[in-house]
Specification:
70% of the residues lie in helices and 2% in strands. The protein is mainly α and 247 residues long. A two-stranded antiparallel sheet has the order 1-2. The longest helix is centred in the last third of the chain and has 37 residues, at 186-222. 32% of the residues are buried.
């Protein structure tokens, strides 16, 4: 007898097809779901493709969300080439962010089981995800992402290189930094620009996901359309046998 947790051949095919569609949708959001005009740095664009990573997790769990994270980033890389050369720092940043969302969901779902309690705990989960992603990505921008962006991926650069460059008159790396961020110190500039940026981006990602979750995915999960019961309380899962009896 097959375990209830296993997918049949038909379900596996449907699963692969849906994950493929989610990758394509995430890719499209990377292209067209961008919001420009971030006031602290005009070169930054807010995009909400990581909403699809959350959708993938809600339907099929961690590995599906991870696959979508890699898939949409790879599609963008193959279509437009590396953002940065020879180090594709822009693509690496996008991948890190998506994977971080997946890991946060995994910890909150499987570890703390925060999403199976009630909607207020789910909202708290979103807040925790946004704070963790914003903090980690701001730190990574300080550590090596922004320094490597300053040389457009021509070589791997860290915060130490930038701090040294800012002390040397006429250093090209230091001049590039001042042209983009002004005369603020490196650490302060990174925090004041990237932490609010990631807070806004993360809030929009979770907001769009919650809208989709409430209107579409919740009903699909509740009616047993998918094997996953992620984000549902036991009392919210419909007993299919009882439902058939009532009908």
């Amino acid at each position: 007898m097959k375990s209830k947790s296993r997918f049949t051949t038909h379900e596996q095919i449907v699963r692969i097809a849906i994950v493929g569609m989610l990758i394509a949708l995430g890719y499209l959001l990377m292209l067209f779901g961008k919001i420009q005009g971030y006031p602290f740095a005009s070169f930054l664009e807010i995009e909400i493709s990581d909403t699809i990573v959350l959708v993938a997790y809600s339907l099929y769990g961690f590995w599906a969300s991870l696959f979508v994270s890699f898939g949409k980033t790879l599609l963008h890389l193959l279509t437009f080439g590396p953002v940065g050369t020879p180090i594709p720092i822009g693509n690496i940043t996008a991948l890190f962010t998506s994977v971080l969302y997946s890991l946060c969901l995994l910890v909150l779902d499987k570890g703390l089981k925060i999403f199976s309690k009630n909607r207020w705990m789910r909202y708290l989960g979103y807040v925790l995800i946004v704070l963790v992603v914003s903090s980690v990505m701001t730190f990574l921008n300080y550590l090596f992402i922004t320094p490597t962006f300053l040389v457009y991926g021509a070589t791997f650069v860290t915060f130490k290189d930038v701090e040294v460059a800012l002390l040397e008159a006429g250093n090209q790396l230091g001049e590039t930094f001042r042209g983009m961020f002004g005369n603020a110190s490196f650490g302060i500039a990174i925090f004041t620009i990237y932490f609010p940026f990631n807070l806004i981006k993360g809030s929009l990602v979770c907001l769009f996901y919650e809208l989709i979750f409430n209107r579409v995915i919740f009903h699909m999960l509740k009616n047993g359309r998918f094997k996953s019961k992620v984000f549902l309380k036991k009392s919210e899962v419909v007993d299919e046998k009882n439902e058939e009896t009532e009908n």
